[in-house]
Amino acid sequence: MSLFERYLTLWVALCILAGIVLGHLMPGFFQAIGALKLAKVNLPVAVLIWLMIVPMLMRIDFAALGGVAAHWRGIGVTLFVNWAVKPFTMAALAWLFIGHLFRGYLPADQIDSYIAGLIILAAAPCTAMVFVWSNLTRGEPHFTLTQVALNDSIMIVAFAPIVGLLLGLSAITVPWNTLVLSVLLYIVVPVAAAQILRRHLIHKGADALPAVLRRLQPLSLCALLATLVLLFGFQGEQILAQPLVIALLAVPILIQVYANAGIAYLLNRLAGEQHCVAGPSALIGASNFFELAVAAAISLFGFNSGAALATVVGVLIEVPVMLSVVRIVNASRPWYERRAGKPELAPGLER
After folding, report:
1. pLDDT mean across residues, the chain
2. Please, which of 15, 32, 63, 167 could form a disulfide with 228 given CB 3.0 to 4.6 Å?
3. Which of 105 and 24 is assigned the larger pLDDT?
4. Residues 160, 50: Cα–Cα separation, whole Å
5. Cα gap 100→170, rounded to integer Å
6. Alpha carbons 289 and 56: distance in angstroms, whole number
7. CB atoms within 10 A of CB 154
8. Is 346 in contact with 157 (CB distance < 8 Å)?
9. Which pTM does this prediction carry?
10. What's the longest Cα–Cα distance across the chain?
């Protein structure tokens, strides 16, 4: 485990704190960055997100889709949770908690925007951080790679329709042009660029791709940390001024994360899948592609919108919550494998 992965919570917490403090001390600076837009897309955020996810997407071999059959039960469970459960349960939770139970405690003019942000957050499964979560649970790497490649392929065509459908059901006006542009900029372009670079490097020799990825890894991590500073700089004033709003927005996100992780984990156990597949399956089923969610929310509704704030709350709790899910998955391994027949372990692992 790298130094970054070992102290992931600390780095994220420091960046969040730095962003909030800087946003409070230098609001004009962040307003100037926020004004750098092209077709409603903030250019600094777009560049940082590309720098963050393109190196990670370069690790994905879409030829791995040919290995779907090897872990078909885990793949089926994860797809079911990611695309048939998570977006719709989040829409229901957002409607229940934000639209009704907590309505009296939230700014009335932002209710629909908060709901939209939560829907956007749940509509795309995590891509970049999945490899970290999988590694922490000693997950089957080929399953993780296959699942991420399959989810990215589906996301290209399914993200916009699902978001549009759920926003429509929530009676929120859908800015389709901006939504489609967000999909192109934050999914299609990075995936295409990453695969072009990957193929070019593979043709140069067996060592070219690993060497470039090693050099790009620090850049990708710095982009992640810089993105966190920037996002929390944009939202720092709101976070300091509205602690209750942050806490209330976190409630449906927390319920959704733990519920979806539990559903995926239990369904894999019922299906007889190995723990080294069930672990990453639960984590992929629960986590969100927050980079895409934040970028899409900002593009669709603006920096100071409730939607942007809701997705930033997702970032705020993503890492510590997912690390807690990792601990639960690892601690429950003996229980998971206590079933009929010989316990199945990941290759190379012993009791």
Report:
1. 82
2. 15
3. 105
4. 19
5. 13
6. 13
7. 16
8. no
9. 0.79
10. 64
Q: Which two tokens stand for residue 18?
A: 């730095």
Q: Is the pLDDT of residue 270 over 80?
A: yes
Instruction: Tell me the two tokens of residue 149.
Output: 């490649």
Q: Which two tokens stand for residue 60?
A: 């994905």
Dist. CA 88–CA 222, nearest whole Å = 33
3-state secondary structure the chain: CCHHHHCHHHHHHHHHHHHHHHHHHCHHHHHHHHCCEECCEEHHHHHHHHHHHHHHHHCCCHHHHHHHHHHHHHHHHHHHHHHHHHHHHHHHHHHHHHHHHCHHHCCHHHHHHHHHHHHHHHCCECCCCHHHHHHHCCCCHHHHHHHHHHHHHHHHHHHHHHHHHHHHHCCCCCCHHHHHHHHHHHHHHHHHHHHHHHHHHHHHCCCHHHHHHHHHHHHHHHHHHHHHHHHHHHHHHHHHHCHHHHHHHHHHHHHHHHHHHHHHHHHHHHCCCCHHHHHHHHHHHHCECHHHHHHHHHHHHCCCCHHHHHHHHHHHHHHHHHHHHHHHHHHCHHHHHCCCCCCCCCCCCCC
d(CA 321, CA 332): 17
| b/e map 5-33, b = 16+ CB within 10 Å | eeebeebbeebbebbbebbeeeeeebeeb
* Measured distance CA(139)–CA(268) in Å, rounded: 13
pLDDT tens-place string over residues 62-75: 776 676 677 889 99
266, 104 Cβ separation under 8 angstroms: no
Structure tokens, 193: 């660029």
**pLDDT higher for 186 or 200?**
200
- Beta bridge mates, 125: 288
Residue with token string 């059901």: 169
Residue with tokens 């079933």: 339
Residue 350 has pLDDT above 60, yes or no: no
What is the signed CA dihedral for 16, 19, 25, 26, rounded to 10 degrees? Answer: -170
CB atoms within 10 A of CB 37: 16
Tokens of 147: 């699942």
pLDDT the model gives residue 149: 80
